[in-house]
Amino acid sequence: MNAKEKISGFVLNQAMNYISGNPEKNLPKLLNWIDALGIKDFESQSRVFHEVLDHPDNVWYQYIMGLWRDIDNDVLKAVFRNFGLNASLLSFPKQRELEEEHGCNIPMTILIDPTSACNLKCTGCWAAEYGNKLNLPYETLDSIIRQGKELSIYFYLYSGGEPLMRKTDIIRLCDEHPDCQFAAFTNGTLIDEAFADELLRVKNFIPIISVEGFEEDTDFRRGAGTFKKVERAMAILKEKRLPFGTSCCYTSKNVHIIGSEEYFDRMIEWGAKFCWFFTYMPVGKEAVPELMATAEQRAYMYRQIRKFRETKPIFTLDFWNDGEYAGGCIAGGRRYLHINANGDMEPCAFVHYSDSNIHEKTLLEALKSPLFMAYRNGQPFNENHLRPCPLLDNPDALVGMVEDSGAYSTDLQNPEDVRELAAKCKNASENWAGVADELWGCYGHCQSCKNHQSA
Question: Looking at residue 413, what is its pLDDT?
Answer without folding.
Answer: 80
